[in-house]
């Protein structure tokens, strides 16, 4: 959906509502008065109040090549962590640089004092921050030097030559919200003093991952990724795959390149993750996203039944009239016990056998009917809608031509829609597991061209050709990480919302790798080359470690790297601090402790779930807390009474409200019982969030828009402003009875017409409400603004405004 172009508005028109408060003659600007002496302010030091309970998103792990107790952990928004004692204590190493958002960390195999960091998280979700290029440390992370690529925005991967640390490759992913030139693969041979782009992918495509052949550092596999977000704060980016996506290979250190296609999906590719097997340099694994993810073949087999599990077999609860099952003589109540030579133990087994086949195939089916064995021959067909269209065309050629014309028209409309909403993902297919992911162990159910749907692939010739080994691909844009045990290729791991593991080389996966006490959403995994049972895991909950191949985990929750969206304080003298965290709910804790040692993890308490954002505290009652999670799930709780309530507006029948991922809400500064929030309308509750009602018209510009900004005047309770993610800006000056679209305020008229434009509207005239005052203000605005322009540069600085 394209956002329609906005009318050209005078850039100062948004100040119109401020004009009545401005004096006729602006006084000279005064220096702000400090409330504390400068010497007092300089004496203050920041101190951490926590919490470390929930950790925060981890994006990469680097470990000392000969000492696994020394490791570096790159975080999404908390800088770089280092431990030299296996995680007992941690040092924050990147807190004084220009950014703390990281995408990758790499230690030189030949000299562990050399550490490289790429800034800008590479996950294209709706809570990422960009970076400012590449940094290098020559003292194990104690000090850093910026090494360039400042406009690369986000870093996919860094590789260092195993013998020559002066040779470094950087996969520049590029800007998430639009095109930029500094993308692709860069190489330096002088430790970062100079860079050469050795793989040019264009202004839309960057590098998300790459790996170096264990026995030949001249051979690299590089994953190209074309993705982009738009202005809407949804789960998925607007573009998840594109023509630029793919896999590239060099055998001469980047001098020449070959695009790899054999065995991979033939359509557009999305995110790709790689891992080389150290035990055999010819074996490499990939997790590949295809534009056809979760789908099935166009001629997928159709049987025309519904069923359920029984003790042994699958009972048919419904047989479609005229379908293949009825044609074959199957009846409701039959229990299917075998298809060909395969025993059917459950309804899932029968579904599996159907999906293994295509329309036109004939099979023998054994059923139990009233305790008697019955054998039938069944021929699968295409789904009814396709079959009916074909039958109609055969019966009536005229209708066939008419249908062809309609089909061509529909195709043209579809192409037009596709051009307007390029690369929009298809509806989830039968193999989805939510959030755009594809379920595991379905590789035999997607037909003979199953490789087209993406999943886990293996190469036995160092990346030249590939074969799909599993359908698994959980939420590709957010994860796409595959790891193989360096000493045993039977143990394969795929990161996702769950942690998937395989002990048979990827033929089957289970989703129970992280156990019950480990946070979900996994992004980084290091496996000890000396002992495959020892692993370090990074996810949205921080850092975890196992020494028994994922049977048990230890949580390193002594680092305060929680990703707070917002921070709020309560009204008491010994105030509490509150905030909402990415994927970790909303929490509160003391600003100080009686022990004198500062707050600890156990001092913090949960006040909301989901992804936490805004938290508000009633200024009249410090125990009355309001919080929210994603998409408008607002609520309240009272710490004193334990009472909880919902503040999410309920739409009337036939209407649907839309809310942003991070929905704005506030408590009125004039009456804290009044709760305001904004979705595609503005809502108000008069009783602490209970029973909120819409008080505005639609404030979004498109059918995807929702509120992102909401403010109440601290001087006048009737004045509210609201803004949306698609550019809507609205205001009310009468407590919500009427609203003005601020984009519709007139542009100031030419001087000759200003007197007429400023004239008041006579009583009874049909001019739009408030049009005359707005026009008058618009006529006055340019002159007033010029008065403030003291240095006459045609621009207004903050110091020039009263």
Question: What are the main properties of this structure?
Answer:
single chain; 802 residues; mainly beta; 6-stranded antiparallel beta sheet; 4-stranded antiparallel beta sheet; 7 helices; 49 strands; 31% strand; disordered N terminus
Mean pLDDT: 89
Q: Which spans of ≥5 residues are poorly predicted at pLDDT below 50?
A: 1-27, 386-393, 412-423, 746-750, 753-762, 764-775
Give the number of helices: 7
Biggest β-sheet strands, sense, barrel: 6 strands, antiparallel
Explain this structure.
The two termini are about 40 Å apart. This protein has seven helices and 49 strands. The chain has about 800 residues and is mostly beta strands. Strand 5 and strand 6 form a beta hairpin. It is globular, with a radius of gyration of 31 Å. Helix content is about 10%, strand content about 30%. The strands form twelve sheets. Strands 19, 20, 21, 22, 23 and 24 form a six-stranded antiparallel sheet that branches. Strands 1-2-3-4 form a four-stranded antiparallel sheet, with no helix packed on it. A four-stranded antiparallel sheet has the order 5-6-7-8, with no helix packed on it. Helix 4 (about 385-395) crosses helix 5 and helix 6 crosses helix 7 (about 770-790).
């Amino acid at each position: 959906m394209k956002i329609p172009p906005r009318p050209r508005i005078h850039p100062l028109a948004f100040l119109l509502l401020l004009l009545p408060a401005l004096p006729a003659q602006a006084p000279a600007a005064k220096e702000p008065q400090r409330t504390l002496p400068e010497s007092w302010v300089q004496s203050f030091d920041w101190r951490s109040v926590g919490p470390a309970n929930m950790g925060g998103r981890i994006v990469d792990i680097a470990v000392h090549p000969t000492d696994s107790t020394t490791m570096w952990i790159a975080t999404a928004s908390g800088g770089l962590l280092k431990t030299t004692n296996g995680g007992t204590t941690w040092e924050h190493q990147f807190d004084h640089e220009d950014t703390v958002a990281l995408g990758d960390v790499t230690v030189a195999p030949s000299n562990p004092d050399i550490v490289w960091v790429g800034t800008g998280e590479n996950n294209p979700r709706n809570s990422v921050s960009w970076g400012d290029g590449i940094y290098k440390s020559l003292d194990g992370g104690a000090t850093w030097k910026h090494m360039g690529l400042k406009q690369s925005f986000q870093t996919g991967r860094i590789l260092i030559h195993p013998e020559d640390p002066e040779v470094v490759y950087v996969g520049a992913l590029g800007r998430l919200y639009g095109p930029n030139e500094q993308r692709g693969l860069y190489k330096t041979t002088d430790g970062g003093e100079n860079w050469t782009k050795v793989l040019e992918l264009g202004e839309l495509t960057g590098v998300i991952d790459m790996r170096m052949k264990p026995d030949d550092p001249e051979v690299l596999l590089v994953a190209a990724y074309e993705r982009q977000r738009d202005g809407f704060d949804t789960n998925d980016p607007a573009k998840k795959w594109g023509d630029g996506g793919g896999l590239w290979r060099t055998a001469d250190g980047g001098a020449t390149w070959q695009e790899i296609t054999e065995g991979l999906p033939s359509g557009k590719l999305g995110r790709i993750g790689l891992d080389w097997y150290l035990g055999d340099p010819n074996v490499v694994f990939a997790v590949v996203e295809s534009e056809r993810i979760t789908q099935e073949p166009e001629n997928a087999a159709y049987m025309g039944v519904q069923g359920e599990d029984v003790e042994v077999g699958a009972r048919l609860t419904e047989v479609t009239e005229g379908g293949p099952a009825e044609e074959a003589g199957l009846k409701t109540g039959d229990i299917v016990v075998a298809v060909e030579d395969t025993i059917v133990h459950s309804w899932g087994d029968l579904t599996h056998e159907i999906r293994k086949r295509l329309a036109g195939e004939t099979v023998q089916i054994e059923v139990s009917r009233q305790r008697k064995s019955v054998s039938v021959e069944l021929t699968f067909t295409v789904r009814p809608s396709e079959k009916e269209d074909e039958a109609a065309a055969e019966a009536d050629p005229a209708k066939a031509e008419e249908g062809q014309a309609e089909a061509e028209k529909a195709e043209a409309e579809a192409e037009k829609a596709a051009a307007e909403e390029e690369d929009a993902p298809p509806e989830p297919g039968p193999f989805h597991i939510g959030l755009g992911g594809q379920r595991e162990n379905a590789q035999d159910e997607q037909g003979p061209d199953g490789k087209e749907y993406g999943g886990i692939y293996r190469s036995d010739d160092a990346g030249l050709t590939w074969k799909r080994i599993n359908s698994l691909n959980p939420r590709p844009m957010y994860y796409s990480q595959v790891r193989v045990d360096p000493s045993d290729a039977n143990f394969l791991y795929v990161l996702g919302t769950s942690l998937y593991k395989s002990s048979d080389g990827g033929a089957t996966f289970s989703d129970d790798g992280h156990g019950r006490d480990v946070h979900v959403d996994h992004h980084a995994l290091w496996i000890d080359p000396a002992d495959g049972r020892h692993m370090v895991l990074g996810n949205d909950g921080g850092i975890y470690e196992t020494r028994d191949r994922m049977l048990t985990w230890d949580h390193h929750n002594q680092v305060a790297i929680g990703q707070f969206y917002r921070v709020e304080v309560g009204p008491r003298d010994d105030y509490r601090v509150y905030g909402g965290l990415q994927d970790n709910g909303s929490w509160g804790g003391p600003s100080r402790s009686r022990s004198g040692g500062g707050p600890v993890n156990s001092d913090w308490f949960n006040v909301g779930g989901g992804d936490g954002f805004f938290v508000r505290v009633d200024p009249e009652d410090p125990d009355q807390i309001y919080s929210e999670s994603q998409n408008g799930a607002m609520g309240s709780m009272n710490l004193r009474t334990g009472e909880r309530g919902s503040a999410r507006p309920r739409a009337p029948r036939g209407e649907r409200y839309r809310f942003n991922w991070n929905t704005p809400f506030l408590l009125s500064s004039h009456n804290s019982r009044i709760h305001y929030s904004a979705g595609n309308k503005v809502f108000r509750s008069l009783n602490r969030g209970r029973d909120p009602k819409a008080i505005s018209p639609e404030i979004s510009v498109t059918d995807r828009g929702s509120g992102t900004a909401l403010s109440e005047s601290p001087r006048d309770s009737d004045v509210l402003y609201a803004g949306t993610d698609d550019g809507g800006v609205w205001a009310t000056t009468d407590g919500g009875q009427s609203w003005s679209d601020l984009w519709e305020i007139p542009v100031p008229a030419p001087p000759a017409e200003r007197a007429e434009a400023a004239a008041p509207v006579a009583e009874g005239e049909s001019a739009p409400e408030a049009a005359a005052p707005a026009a008058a203000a618009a006529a006055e605005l340019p002159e007033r603004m010029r008065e403030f322009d003291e240095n006459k540069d045609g621009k207004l600085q903050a110091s020039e405004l009263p």
